Amino acid sequence: MASDSRVSETNKKIYWVPLESSPEAMNKMVYRLGVDKAVGFNDVWGLDDELLEMVAQPVHALIFLFPSLEEFQAARKQKAASSSNKVSPNVWFMRQTIGNACGTMAIIHALANIQKTVPISGPLGEFFEKTKNLSPAERATELEKNESIAALHSQSAVEGQTTAPEADADILHHYSAFVNVDGDLYELDGTTSAPLNHGPSNNLLKDAARVIKEHVKSLNDDPRGFSVISLGPNLSEN
């Protein structure tokens, strides 16, 4: 299967077609990658308690889509590099070196950190096995070379309900993933130097919602909008 990724002639940077922010597009991709169909991505309709109660349980991870503002990202990168940002060695993390791949990066980060809960085989399972002892930078290099994942990403990206932008288009939104590892809530964004530890957590959904609300305030309720998607039971199978 041919990949639709592109390489900039100027700096040889690899770009992928951006993935649509929809559970349907995400599910198509992860099932092709080898994720068990017992789980799936679902919309989170709001961050207030009554709306969070409607989210199918258990929630394994959250995907957050937000406007990419330079000041906000700079603050996150500073926090990630701070000595106070303690990260468990059990957190699976990878740097992002592929342009416009942040949606797939967030999905990979979410799935990589719940491998003990969710069966993963196929190309993604093989990638996790191959990279389990590598550094975040080395994992990024392996993803750049992985034609199977690139091709399946591309196939899913162009099948969305909206017209897919060009691979090297200037995208105004960014993704991150939230997971719970060793009792702490982590936000994973491959453009930062390390996972962001948001502190102790015994309820991934509610604790991540609290952090996301803080992010929204920091972004001054940017009119370009936000979205949150949960990884939990596959509702289409019920």
From TrEMBL:
Family: Belongs to the peptidase C12 family.
PANTHER family: UBIQUITIN CARBOXYL-TERMINAL HYDROLASE (PTHR10589)
InterPro entries per UniProt: Papain-like_cys_pep_sf (IPR038765), Peptidase_C12_UCH (IPR001578), Peptidase_C12_UCH_sf (IPR036959), UCH_AS (IPR057254)
One BP annotation, GO: protein deubiquitination
Origin organism lineage: Eukaryota, Fungi, Fungi incertae sedis, Zoopagomycota, Kickxellomycotina
Reactions catalysed according to its record: Thiol-dependent hydrolysis of ester, thioester, amide, peptide and isopeptide bonds formed by the C-terminal Gly of ubiquitin (a 76-residue protein attached to proteins as an intracellular targeting signal)
Active site positions, chain numbering: 102 (nucleophile), 174 (proton donor)
Domain of life, source organism: Eukaryota
Protein name: Ubiquitin carboxyl-terminal hydrolase
Keyword Transmembrane helix: no
Listed EC numbers: 3.4.19.12
Positions marked as site (Important for enzyme activity): 189
